[in-house]
Design brief:
This protein has helices at about 35-40, 70-75, and strands at about 5, 10, 15-20, 25-30, 55-60, 65-70, 80-85, 85-90, 90-95, 100-110, 110-120. Strand 1 (about 5) and strand 2 form a beta hairpin. By secondary structure, it is mainly beta. The chain has a six-stranded antiparallel beta sheet. A five-stranded antiparallel beta sheet has the order 3-4-5-7-8.
Length: about 120
């Protein structure tokens, strides 16, 4: 089962785009719009400030190994972020196996550092 989780909130997954071409990896994962709409119905919701689901992406990342460590330096060199009303820095790992894509780390959203976990079955 696919999962897109920020902190303790499960957004589930919406559209996913994945490619590896000429040793460059690109991945875009969007939160599920229906789940997002339910989460933001309540004005007091933690996510009520957002107008649309979160989107994690990385584009044109050199890919040679099954595990990529994403730190601050990596983020400055390559296009990787969590977009949720603004671009939010991500630090963590991306691991690709024959059966799944696993992203684990932390994201800074408006000064709050939250865990980010994305698990995608192939």
């Amino acid at each position: 089962m696919n999962s897109f989780k920020i902190g303790n909130t499960e957004f589930s997954t919406g559209d996913i785009q994945f490619s590896i071409e000429k040793s460059l990896l690109s991945l875009e994962v969007n939160g599920n719009k229906d789940v997002f709409d339910k989460l933001t119905e309540d004005y007091d919701s933690e996510w009520s400030f957002a107008l649309y689901p979160p989107k994690f992406y990385l584009y044109d990342i050199p890919y040679e190994d099954k595990k990529i460590m994403i730190d601050e330096d990596f983020s400055y060199k390559y296009d990787v972020s969590l977009y949720m009303m603004e671009y939010n820095d991500f630090i963590g790992t991306l691991e690709i196996t024959d059966k799944s894509i696993n992203i684990q780390g932390q994201v800074d959203i408006m000064g709050d550092v939250l865990s980010l976990s994305i698990i995608l079955e192939k």
